[in-house]
Amino acid sequence: MSITLKINGETREVSADADTPLLWVIRDELNLTGTKFGCGVASCGACTVHINGQPQRSCVTPVSAVGEQEVTTIDVIDTPQARAVQTAWQELDVVQCGYCQSGQIMSAAGLLSSNAKPSDEDIDSYMAGNACRCATYHRIRAAIHRASDILEG
User: Fold this and answer.
1) What is the pTM of this model?
2) What separation in angstroms does the CA of 4 have from each of 12, 13, 30, 71?
3) At a CB cut-off of 8 Å and minimum separation 6, what does 65 contact?
4) How many C-alpha atoms does 128 have within 13 Å on its Cβ side?
5) Per-residue burial over 24-61, b = 16 or more CB atoms within 10 Å of its CB, e = otherwise
6) 95-113 as b/e, with b when 16 or more CB fall inside 10 Å?
7) For domain 2-72, which CATH number applies: 3.40.50.300, 3.10.20.30, 3.40.605.10, 3.40.50.960?
8) Is residue 153 very low, low, confident or very high in pLDDT (cuts 50, 70, 90)?
9) Which CATH entry fits the domain spanning 80-152: 3.40.50.720, 1.10.150.120, 3.40.50.620, 2.60.40.420?
């Protein structure tokens, strides 16, 4: 079936069954490989994208549920929060293996969009659904605080 998506600022036609996970449409149909497959059950966060500016797990989101909503992937995210997060990630050397980082960054940008000055508890709670095999959680938390400071100016 033909489905129209608003993705990364463009309207795209894809051929997919209605129940196909958005992740597979993003990766296999649109060749946007920044969004990763991790678990397939929304437990790890590697597949996180923004739908209308809110972090969502694309591995369990049927493409038919997206409708007219705007999907943004790590490939093009360019909000002030995302830029601050990416800068902080580099400054603090957050990345180790890097596999989870697209999802971590998308979630962190979402957090800072809704809470510009999160506490440690806010960060831990919001980011709890993002798994890091390398256990860089302390660097992720520090980078989110740093991104918050960057946004403050």
Assistant:
1) 0.95
2) 6, 5, 12, 12
3) 22
4) 6
5) bbbbebbebebbbbbeeebebbbbbbbbeeebbbbbbb
6) beeebbbbbbbbbbbbbbb
7) 3.10.20.30
8) confident
9) 1.10.150.120
